[in-house]
Amino acid sequence: MSARELASIDLDSLLDAVREDLVRSPGAIDVARVARLLRAGDQVLGAADVLTAAELVRDHLDGLGPLQDLISPGVTDLLVNGDGSVWIDGRDGLQRTDRVMTAQQARDLAVRLAVSGGRRLDDAMPWADAHLPSGIRFHALLPPLSPTGPVLSLRLPAAEPLRMDDLESLGAFPAVIGDLLRRIVAARVPFLVTGGTGTGKSTLLGAMLAAVDANERIVIVEDALELQVDHPHVVSLQSRHANSEGAGLVDLSELVRQCLRMRPDRIVLGECRGAEIRDLLQALNTGHEGGCGTIHANTAADVPARLEALGALAGLDREALAAQAASALDLVIHLGRTAAGRCLQEIAVLHRATSGALTCTSALTVHEGEIRQGPAAAQLQHLLTTGSGIGPTMRLARTGRRAA
Length: 404
Hints:
Blueprint: H1 11-24, H2 31-40, H3 47-61, E1 77-80, E2 85-90, E3 93-100, H4 103-116, E4 127-131, E5 137-141, E6 151-155, H5 164-169, H6 175-186, E7 191-195, H7 201-210, E8 218-222, E9 234-238, H8 252-259, E10 266-269, H9 276-284, E11 292-296, H10 303-313, H11 318-328, E12 331-338, E13 341-352, E14 358-367, E15 370-373, H12 377-386
Helix pairs in contact: 1-2, 1-3, 2-3, 8-9, 9-11, 10-11
């Protein structure tokens, strides 16, 4: 139960009364409305308790209900499992809370959130992926897909988009790596941000895009809006799922093609996870420099295999994918999670080997603040000094030493 719930009121009855009152008299869920309905139900509370009751009602009807008070600084994910257990993810990693939801509570919350995000969730369509008006990314599965009960996953946005300086102060990377990332952006080097779930891919990508020149137009394509970019000229496009009749689908591939007609300076694909990789590579091979995106990968060395798998979904064979990717993308920026938190672990160069296969060679690795050169360090330097945003050459550290 929420810490703010009042034992002296029947919350379910109050919620039903508020819903019925909103049908008769649409408007805000304010203290006056809640106080009137409490009096009508012969429930008399003090001023402070009425205010608390109004907040509870808003949480249950407009917010996250019994999960609302779990939102706090540093919490990035709220997770509800089929058994009703509630978990949070944040700076200290995944932790179980003392909150437990019944199957009906979880289902009611999931259905309401799906509707608020413009998605359908019921027995005929037992899953939903949506972007809520509050900025939360929402996903849910209902039984029988989840036999033990509804499963909810909520990705919480940062209160304010993080910038490069913020990530440096949080220990995501050393200051010299921050300077290097800014130079990658300024030189319009195309790149992928990679890593596992919850490693901060979207956060880093958003911070790097915030460093793009204010005169450039950024067009972002996503399946569910997640990227937060503090930049004066950002256009966000979101795919649309088919309706209950199977009509109205607009997928990521179509949106990538549409954005080419929108005069983009930078094309950004929030997450590559399907056949849209073909359209992104084609777009980046038609003069659109500085494009970027994210994909899931265990290590930077695994990125070529991931790209080949995605290319196969689009009908690209290994050779065709290698040719397209090597021409369209130059760098892989890989993130991971350690006991210290989310951090940048490697920057690698994506290129074709002498055999013609796509390969990823390490240029820099970062471990506990120590920066080490890899075999592709010279290639990285070359990319930074031949781009359109040439800056002073950065001297990379020798193996085992910090960057100068």
